[in-house]
Amino acid sequence: MSDTPVPPGPAKSSGLAVLDLDVLDLPPAIDTGTHAGAVVLLRIAGRPCGQAVLSFRNWDEQLPLFERLTEAADSAFWEAWVAYRLGLRPEPETPTLPPIDVVICTRDRPDDLAKCLSDLMTMPDDGQRYTVIDNASRTDDTRQVVERFPGVRYVREDRPGLDIARNRAIAETTREIIAFIDDDAAPDRLWLRNLGRNFEDPLVMAAGGLTMAMELESEAQIAFQRVGGFGRGFKRMVYDAANCDPFHGWYAGAGVNMALRRRAFAEVGLFDEALDAGTQSLAGGDSDMFRRILNAGWQIVYDPEALNWHRHRRSMEELKRQIYGYEVAAFAILTKSLFYEREWAGVGFLAWWLRQRLSQLRDSIGQKSDLPFNVAVTQIRGALAGPGRYRAALRKARHAGS
Amino acid sequence: MPDLEVPLVSIVIPTHNRRARLLSTLEALRRQTFAVSRMECVIVADGCRDDTVAAVAAFASEFPIRLVELPGQGPACARNAGVSVAQAPLLLFLDDDVEPEPELVAAHVAAHEASVPRAVVGAYPPFPHASPDPFRLEARSWWLTHFDELAREGHRATFRDLLTGNLSMPAQLWHDVGGLDPEFEHAREDWELGVRLISHGAPITFLSDARGWHYEHETSRFETGYVRAREEGRSDVRMARKHPGMRGELPIVQMYPAQGPTKRLAWMAFDAPWLGSLYGKTGFRLLQLCRRHRLRGPFRALHGAVRQYWYLVGAASELQSQRNWADLATRDDSGPPADLTVDLAQGIERAEQQIAAARPSQVKIEYSGRAVATMPWLPAAEPWDARHLRPFLAREACTEYSRVLRITDAADGEEKYNIAAYGYISARGFHMSLLEAMGQWWQVQQR
Question: Is A82 close to B420, i.e. CB distance below 8 A?
């Protein structure tokens, strides 16, 4: 560690490399290029196990890469590595997968969609089916992209709204499991198999996977990752309401990488069309679904080996809007729970939230930040807007429905 | 040619006013893959006031059903009474709310073939049932966690593994250890038998293939949970007195000296029963409120406290005074000195052979003379065996073993660096993951 003061964050001029390395099959060296450092996905015998964050400042080519990586590796990697070396990590058997429909909801992102689809096609064929829901795209490009992939079904949904598109997907598909991936994400080769294997237990109504950053070139992308990103860690968890407040159902996953059992919709209902992208509520359709699943007593598995890659928003403005949107959504859901479902449990979440945000706000005052906006202030603004935005979104959704 | 007249396995089911559930269990026994002609069933109707007796008498089955009636003496006496009329050399105990899968009996029977006499515990996880009720969630979670631990590779059996809801053992072993102790009439009769089985040297084996579904969501009720907690308190005092060597494993001993809230609960339980009774009643009402409104956090906290209060009430009825509690709880945790030292530098297989040969109660693990970890002594637990070593290193001693790996992997055999992951190994959950990831970024900033 250096004694001299250093500017926060890796050198700002250049971004971070995103590397995907198997410690059993390491290259002799890595190309540091113009990057200030790297985020490394660590695999053991092909299986995602953990991550290391490296700085290329004072990078010594002479030090063995293996030592560099394991020194910086997280605890999940070490747990897996110790188990592997002790012969306790047998190759997972190919699971008997339930029948799966893979769904991509998209809107005016033909290039992203094309990449997502071609990566999906590199996964092993376990009999899965693909459906693209074209959610009110302004051009015909989306249809043309889908037509390039035989076997991928194209469905047009004219009413804009991510939850509207998701509900359309549920109506258009028939299989027991529906897996969702975002159009700006790309699956790891065994993404679907590792997501689908979690449904053997009938208590499990949903599963979420790990989403890593596809690129960390811009400041906003790095900043998003630094405040947590989509990170949920590399350790598998089984959540239910006994170990997780349903308001924190998003701990188990998010819409970018999730699968649901069809029965869940019969048990807890469809996605709330007054939530998520395309509505005043901005986000939260996935979190609300997970909340209702946990609330009803079912389980959700978080399985980090179900890995996909996501291209984070590139500009600070987009990042700010996203952070704002998450908080709007959290309070939209709280409003729904307290005033529309008449559940008391939200009071506990509200108390937790106040403690968290107020201490974050206090800590942020006078602190130098590498973000051009104050995260806590943005979040509090979002929270204050949440209830009103949910009411407006609900009015609109009901109006559209009638 | 085996004698077809003599059954091979006697299935003993004590029951108390659960006619419908019992009949489902009997139906499931008719569907076994095991030859139904080689089994018999003993139903012990203990204080049944519904028409269980008539329903069992009318039940048509391919195997003989013997019926024993008792006036309501509790499960320990009921099982003993069932055994006294059982004729087969193998006993299989099932609870009336455990519905066996078709392979259950066959799996139990196979587990006893050509092996030292042992107790075989089958899995009976909760029947998959979702409920928003905080009480149901807690109960289900307890059972799921319990069986996950039993199924974990390298699990070390303790007296707590011995549950009687799905358990088999040779009749000879049952008689050798003396069956269940009727002094533990309403609680802990199973654990107490476990203590004697382990000191007898009989292995307790978990068998996930011998599975039945536990309909606990129909049978375990919030209202009776506190009665049970009181019985557990009472029984734990008796167990501590009967088996002083293992009493440090019992909550009543671990709670002493009581501190904080436990101290106040103990004061009420021992010295202020009038206030305690008010506490119990108020707590119960508040808990019902929490259940109705799904307030899981408050429920969990209060439920734990009220359970603990009733547990202490039971213990107090046995102990009479806090002074006697102090006498009971004075203990010596030191255990015997380590009876085996293994050196991993000689290879892990060699260490496993040494452990398998010695079956020690405690193992010191070294690497080239350097201390790595100790597989600890634990009262009323099975001695260490070869199969425990690797899982122990991977779980309990993961941090320590990671050092061994860094030494063996370094070209010069010297540990050169610390790892960033220290402190997070074995940690679980969203917040720990987030903290660790942010720590990784922070470390990079510092370079």
Answer: no
